[in-house]
Amino acid sequence: AIPLVVAISTAVSANNGLLIRNRTAFENSRNITTIIFDKTGTLTQGSHEVARVVSLNPAYTEQELLRLAAGVEQNSEHYISQGVLRKVETEGITIPASSDFHYLPGKGLEGTVEGKDVKVVGPNYIKEFNIQVPENDAEDGVETVVYIMIDQQVAGFITLKDQIRPESEEAIKILKENGIKNLLLTGDNERVAKSVSDKLGMDGYLANVLPHQKQEKVKELQQNGEFVAMTGDGVNDAPALAQADVGIAVGSGTDVAAETADIILVNSNPQDIASLILFGKATYRKMI
Ligand code: ADP
Ligand code: MG
């Protein structure tokens, strides 16, 4: 039989924006010592608005770069894709057809547009292949930067601005007050990661992280005796969500993340995570 106090707490959780998929993990949430947050769509809104389009090759205008980028981005539901497609629509650009589309997990995407190989990729890809790109202006410091590659050459880049969720600061504050460590893990660039981590007063961050590295970080913390919760919203976060002692998916995210997670944040509100842990502690205190 389910102890009454647990049954009640589960019902209360539903009212607090939590959907419990794994009761054991939910009950264990009171033991969490470290929470890892994915950035995009979890602590931030994922409202990615195109700020700048810069051509690095005189053969391509900025409009042309946007058009080719949209050709591949139309195949994806990622926040970056949505931002690029909104911009293209505003500019009245017709999106070209694409074929051979595929994801480069944690790095971006690739497809064929009008006979050209077009990639839209982040710093991870650029770093891995040792591709040189000019330093951006300081004003790009807190923006996500994606590079447009045409036939293996960097042709330009797009910067996108995202917003921190208004509830994130309070969520981090409550966690810290209760002695729970927090860490930001993101596939995005170093400066964006640092900016979000600093603004929210987080304990630390890791940038340019690939999906398997998110999972390895969870494992490393567990081996150091931490009881780890991980929050995420993307396909890329699934391995880390599965590895975590408590996997928490953001409700607005992908089905893959939701299917891997123990708990779903129905309203995508990070404050509900703080409530979850504090509520779990209070509930079990009552049982003893
Ligand atoms: P996060 O860890 O912040 O949730 P993701 O793992 O979703 O980020 O993406 C990591 C990085 O991969 C992005 O910052 C971007 O550089 C690149 N990327 C992912 N999806 C796309 C896309 N649709 N278009 C361009 N770049 C992308
Ligand atoms: Mg994500």
TrEMBL record:
<protein>
    <submittedName>
        <fullName>Copper-translocating P-type ATPase</fullName>
    </submittedName>
</protein>
<feature type="transmembrane region" description="Helical">
    <location>
        <begin position="1"/>
        <end position="20"/>
    </location>
</feature>
<comment type="similarity">
    <text>Belongs to the cation transport ATPase (P-type) (TC 3.A.3) family. Type IB subfamily.</text>
</comment>
